[in-house]
Fold this protein.
Amino acid sequence: MNTDPIADYLTRVRNAIKANHRVVEIPASNLKKEMTKVLFDKGYITNYKFEDTNVQGTIKIALKYNPITKISAIRNISRISTPGLRRYAGVDNMPRVLNGLGIAIISTSKGVMTDKEAKNLNIGGEVLCYVY
């Protein structure tokens, strides 16, 4: 049993990037699927595939690298809200990652989205992670 599946998701992606892997396989959940869609929409990953082979299913993520320098599109991915200390942000105090160059993935009542989308919809939520 995993006590923090989101931290496990982020750690698997981080470790795959450090090992220069092209594809990383992660156990699936609805929240992880939504986070993967946000990463794809913002251009941090090349592609993804949801496979329902067993009860839980898996997510296969194709990581994105610069073809010339071989540097990953994801420079840093870090967990903010943990099970022991939940971090929430209202519309007024929405975090800005790298002065707007990165994204914060927010879990809101309208679903999982970036900090900019949540600010445009005028809703706050739990800050899951920072990506840049």
Observations:
- The first strand starts at residue 23 and ends at 27.
- The two ends are 29 Å apart (CA to CA).
- The helical segments are 5-18, 30-41, 115-121.
- The chain has a mean pLDDT of 95.
